[in-house]
Amino acid sequence: MAGRTVTRVLLVLCAWLSLAHAAPAPVVREALAVKGYRVEIDTRPWARVLRDKDKFDGVLVLWPDEVTAMSLHHYLPIFRSRVGFYTRVDTPVDTRNLAALYQRTVGIARGYGYPRVVFESGFDLVEQTDDLTNLRMLHGRRFDLVVIERPVGEHIIKTQLPEALDKLVWNEPALAEVSLGL
Prior knowledge:
The chain is α/β, with parallel strands linked by helices. Helices cover 30% and strands 34% of the residues. It has seven helices and eight strands, in the order βααβαβαββαβαβαβ. The strands form two sheets. It has a five-stranded mixed sheet with strand order 6-5-7-4-8. α5 (116-119) links the parallel β5 (105-109) and β6 (124-128). The chain is elongated.
């Protein structure tokens, strides 16, 4: 494809990478192809995204606060993510009443760009290395709740934590709905 501008995009490697390839990556390729760009997509784990971001023309998929924190520009929303709580089925928690959650232990993943409401909530937030670890700790009763994107939680439980399929549940309503983008 001579004459076409090559755009290098970094795709954040995460637990639900197959979902990411099924949705935003082809959308970005097709949208930029219309404008004459050929898109090459590379992957990195989240920890290396911060280090390598300047080697690429864009990063998929980020929350708006991450775009700001990384001093990136031209945020293009790709899809909306629902961020909220997973709990244990046998220990129901009314997540509609956030004030009632203050005495609960809430797991979050270290370094994630969660919506501000998570950090401003006053919850007893405990950071772990990743979402899988948080869900394992929830399943093992070391957390009362875990803050996570709904499709990420569904994917991890289905593919990496099947023993928790009927033990962990997403709670409505979502704590926040955030656009993920490039």
